[in-house]
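Good morning,

Both structures are done.
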Amino acid sequence: MAPPAAALSSLSNALATVEQLSSSSSSIDGVAPDLEASIRFAGAQLTQAAGILLRLSQDIIAQAIVTFTRFWAGPEGGSLRIYSVKDVSAAALYMTAKLSFEPTSPRSVLNVYALLLSKEASPLWFVNPRRQDPTDKPAPAPETYYLSEGDYQTQRQVLFRIESVILRTLGFNTHVVLPHTVALTYLQTLGVSTPALANRVFEHLNAGLLSPQLLYLTHQPNALAVAAIYLAAREVNVKLVDSEWWEVFDVDREQLGFLVVGMKSMEGFARAEKVKWETRTVPLVVEDVDAEIERRRMMEEGG
């Protein structure tokens, strides 16, 4: 990640370089771009769901998702054929919470992931695609997601090991600035800070965390905030100033256009992913990634 200028480091993020955006360790290891995007998307949602169950604040969850996404970027990043998404997600969330005012225990983290990754009990569509409506089905038996003491000790060591791998991969740079507070400040500056508009802005910013375009790795918080405001204002029919107000916040029209398109595309992308994986689980461990790559290879040879 390219470090931000020293004077603005407290307000800026390290962004992905051109090399990191053009090639990833996973693609070098033979993971197709669409499969990589699907797995990253599922992993970010897994992190979000785990954070909610752990009752962590949204800013901690968002920072963990950014850290999770950064880990896979570039040829020096983590490969999906070496590291399991479930382990990296758990370690990113545990590490982010530990560095905050809301630390959580390894046991709590691992218990939550045991539930979310259970094929019988998980409410997540990409883990348990057939459990679309859990309200009309009996509750799963606790044995299906129970983490024994032996399993806990083993997974605890994996959690600590992957945490250290993430830190080394990111050069121990865990600094993440989120655009949410920036957006609120901009709304007040523009004189249009209403609950409906602010909620819609936050929805776009939270959805952007899951973007296949890696919006949080390519643009600074001020640009993300401006794009979310621009898009949300149009959707809730709030009139902004007539001038090119985004330039006041150091965002040019090209940046704004790219980000608006990226944010608008999230709903369609998420819907397409659910259709794509409606009968199969998204591979979240190395063995399943290898199996999916082999399945695709055999289909190509047979087709």
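Second structure follows.
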Amino acid sequence: MSESTPPSAGKPPQSRERAQQARRRVLRTILLTGGVMGAALSGYLPLVYAQKKRLRPPGALDEKDFLSSCIKCGQCVQVCPVQAIKLADLVDGFGVGAPYIDAREQACDFSCDAVQCILACPTGSLVYKKPAFLGVRKGAKLAAAPILKAKEKDAEPTLNLSERIGVARLTRPEACLAIQGKGFKGQVRGASFKGRMRYMEVNRWKPIRVADHPYDVAECDLCVRECPVKGAISIETVFAPDGTKRKSPVVHEPCVGCGVCEMICPVEPTCIVIDAREVWNT
């Protein structure tokens, strides 16, 4: 063979049909690999997300009973006046389609007064009072019917709710404006925030965007100011580790876990969160 002869000389050229077959094999391998990885992730992601407790709508049964009885009909979503209730997506595994609340994005402010999601539930997944055979976890039951601030002047000021859906907890006290003795002025969460709430001084029956209700407070107390349940949270004088006196949000037993404090906190990330399905520990 002469030096000018290319290395492939003498080999028969690959037919067009064989080239297409080779390409199809490569594509099939890629698709199969992607399918296997997708199937693996579809089983893995629900397990990961299952570690995160979902905040369920008011009156939800304990998680196992809730998921087994909820038919994912979306009726609770339809009647919520602030659209706080969402339906879970595929990553929730067995919980796909089940209603939940992301309090930071949109809390339940009880602007429906009657807790319409419970009234709309056709299966008893959301109830005012559990049937006796299900029982109530210690700490989940409210000591007394919660008083709704918006209904204080009504003949019946209480909220028809017997169990909490979670408990508020101050998670980042070092960033809390109240503890720092700072005020707040402007739009909570910024002009683009879509969360809504009922403001009694504006309209009792029509929730408005939080962004349309700017604040100007010398000392931040928004979590207390906007909490819909009387006595659930207050600003108290506490002692810091160095012995100095500070003012701090303090959560009390009437807290039902609605999430308004988490939504309205102007600090990013929020200083106060709702621990879903948490009970009250005395």
